[in-house]
Amino acid sequence: MKAVIDTNCLLSCIGKRSNYRNVFDTFLDSKFELCLSTEILLEYEEKFDSFWGQAVTQNLLGVLLTAENTSLYDIFYYFQLVQGDRDDNKFADTYLASNADYLVSNDKKLLALNGLEFPPMHIVQLESFSEIIKNL
Description:
Strand content: 5-15%
CATH topology: Rossmann fold
Strand order of the largest sheet: 3-2-1-4-5
Number of helices: 7
Distance between the termini: 9 Å
CATH superfamily: 5'-nuclease
Order of helices and strands: EHHEHHEHEHEH
CATH architecture: 3-Layer(aba) Sandwich
Radius of gyration: 14 Å
Largest sheet: 5 strands, parallel
């Protein structure tokens, strides 16, 4: 199974006491593939650094980048599907470029893409994804 996880959802998974820690642990156990792009990695780095500082950020990025179940995708086509927050297009574009099974986000503008006829999108909230991966 392949997934793109938006930054706020990933931040919500990392804490040891998080209700969604199972998502990060399942990733660490290599039970799903995390699909990334350079733009997503840069946003992860920026947000991690503001939350936890440079040392923790470098450690987390090292974990993500060296995991066998992380794939980095080049984005060649920008669909510009997200209305109102163009910065979120990086998640939709990576989802499409990677042919991922899920885009995990609690963002209303990304969730609204579920109604598109083309390209078809499968966007789930973090709570739902947490339940889905319990069966892996």
